[in-house]
Hints:
By secondary structure, the chain is mainly alpha-helical. The protein has helices at about 10-25, 30-35, 40-55, 75-90, 95-105, 110-129, and strands at about 25, 55-60, 65-70. The protein is built from six helices and three strands, in the order αβααββααα. About 10% of the residues are buried.
Amino acid sequence: MSTAAFAHLSRRERQIMDLLYQHGRLSAAEVHARLPDPPSYSAVRALLRVLEQKGHVRHQEEGMRYVFLPKVTREKAKRSALAHLVKTFFGGSPGQAAAALLDASAGELTGEELERLAGLIERARREGR
């Protein structure tokens, strides 16, 4: 699956993927029940089939129903989405992306988070030399 694969999902497809990552595994009926302003049940089933064809989800048979699961781990999907975001909006510069994120949330960071970030910056300095 390419780095930008998740960027090519429709709003509904992203909503479904979010639900599957939150819950791990869901039937079409469970997805339908959890979607905001859901389309018809048959539309949800069609979206799940499309996500399966695109390689984002897989299904398992459980009795008389299919249960859908993400095919890619949440961590891999997160990294892919982040790489796409950095490439698209920050010219491929992780530093610019980090600076923008810090500017936007500076007052919300805990002391522990600031210490972790300082450690990561220090490690990057050592490894960059």
